[in-house]
User: Fold this.
Amino acid sequence: MKISTKGRYALRVMLDIAQNSNGEFISLRDISQRQEVSMKYLEMIIGILNRGNFVQSQRGKDGGYRLAKSPADYTVLSILTLTEGDLAPISCLEDLAPECPRATDCLTLPFWQGLNKTLKNYMGSVTLEDILNKKTIEV
Amino acid sequence: MKISTKGRYALRVMLDIAQNSNGEFISLRDISQRQEVSMKYLEMIIGILNRGNFVQSQRGKDGGYRLAKSPADYTVLSILTLTEGDLAPISCLEDLAPECPRATDCLTLPFWQGLNKTLKNYMGSVTLEDILNKKTIEV
DNA sequence: TATTTTCATATTGGTAATATAGGAATTGTG
DNA sequence: CACAATTCCTATATTACCAATATGAAAATA
Assistant:
C-alpha cells in the first residue's frame, strides 16, 4: 500500500517547476540539484509528464521544462494517476478490470469501493497551488 | 498503491469465520472451500491472525479457528495492519521511520500526512460487523 | 495407534520497482 | 560551422517483493 518513488518524485518535480519558473524553461539539471535526485532518473519521470502534456519542453541550449497550465489546474490525483496508473487500492476496481464473477456476492466490495472513493476524493481535492500556498488540509 | 492479496484474503477469512461460526471452531478446510483459496496459502495467512491473537485455534480432530472477540471489535484497519504492516502510503510516515532530514522543508509532507489520516480514518471506521450487516458506508 | 488438523519454516517463480548506461537529436552562441 | 548544453529514447542490470507451494513436525482426539 505504497505510493511509488516515481509518483512521489513526479509530484516534487511539478512543484519544483511551479516554484522556480515564471514561464521560462527550467533545466533538469537545476531540478536534479535542488531535489537531490539523479538526472537520469528524473529524465524517465519527466518523460512521462511530458508525453502526458503536463509539462512543455524546449530542447537544446537554455532548454528545459515548464508547466503547461497553472498550478491550480493540477490535482495531485491527476499527477499520480499519470505516473502510477490507476490508483484503485485493489485491482478489481481498476477502470479496465474485467468484471469479477464474485462481484454480486462479494461482501467486501462495498468497503473497497468506499476506500477507493475516499482516496480519490482526497487526492482530487488538493492542487499544486494548495501545496505551494501551504493551504491547511482539513481531514 | 495496492492492498496485497494477503490482506484481502485475511479480511475474507475473518468474515468467513464470523459468518459461519457461533463460537465453534471452523476448520481451514471449510474456509478454503468456501473462499476458493488453497489451504496452504490460507495456512500462512491465518498463522498471522493467530499469532496476533485475532483468532483462537484448536488443533486436532474437529479443530479449527474462531474469532477471539466479537465482529464489532475488529476494524478493517486492525486486520490489514496486522497482515500488511503499517499502511502509511509513503515509508517516511511509518511509525518506526527515522526522521527525514528534509522533513522541515518538505512541501509535500502535509499532503501525505493528510492522505495517511484520511486512509486510516476510513479503514478504522468500518468493522467486521458493519460489513456483515451491509451497513451503508457514506463517503 | 490412526486420523485429522494446526503450526513453522524454507523455497520457488514471477513480476514490478528502482536506477543507470549510452548515445541520438535539437538548439542557441561565438 | 563547431561546440556545448540540453532533451529524448531505448535498453539493461539489479534488487526487492509478492504469491504460492513444499515439506514435514506437533498436537488433539477417538
Q: What stands out?
A: The domain at 1-139 of chain A is CATH 1.10.10.10 (Arc Repressor Mutant, subunit A). Chain A has a mean pLDDT of 96. The radius of gyration of chain A is 17 Å. Chain A has one domain: 1-139.
